[in-house]
Design goal:
Length: about 160
């Protein structure tokens, strides 16, 4: 007999004996399970995040999509200071995907936001509103524009060594 053929009451009974880690793994396995499970709370995710399993897989909780996501899905600052695995502000962490999605609620990354993602300076471009690598001005400072808009905007001269007069 297939596990999925068991009555839902039995499923629920079995799920109650599972750890959060088991549940998260099952949810990934199949959409049937995904729909069947009650929505996992942020607290449960944070609890799961501190398990050896999550730590080994380098997974972190996102407060908005309520998923455990790999570290590469978060801006560098989201995993530093208080937002480390057991950090006091870890409940404020959200993934880049959620950060760039405009939605109601507390402020996330809006046009002009600058942050570092996988060591790369990124920006939600103030002109095109795209999430892209940030352009740098002639002083080497990050701007609020993406490279495309920045170069279109001020027509950077071709790179030439400065002439000494
Ligand atoms: Zn997210
Ligand atoms: Zn742009």
């Amino acid at each position: 007999m297939n596990f999925l053929d068991l009555p839902p009451e039995l499923h629920l009974l079995i799920f109650k004996s599972l750890t959060m880690e088991d549940i998260l793994k099952l949810r990934i396995t199949c959409t049937h399970f995904f729909q069947m499970f009650p929505q996992i709370t942020h607290e449960q995710l944070l609890e799961a995040e501190s398990t050896a399993w999550a730590s080994e897989k380098n997974l972190y909780a996102c407060r908005y999509c309520l998923r455990l996501r790999p570290a590469c899905q978060f801006a560098d600052r989201m995993l530093g200071r208080g937002r480390t695995r057991l950090g006091t502000d870890r409940d404020k962490r959200f993934c880049v995907e959620c950060g760039v999605k405009p939605r109601d609620g507390p402020p996330r990354y809006g046009p002009g936001s600058q942050f570092t993602f996988q060591g790369q300076a990124c920006v939600i471009c103030i002109l095109c509103h795209q999430f892209r690598p940030a352009a740098f001005n002639s002083d080497g400072r990050g701007t609020r524009h993406c490279e495309v808009c920045w170069s279109g905007r001020i027509r950077l001269p071709a790179k030439e060594p400065p002439s000494i007069t």
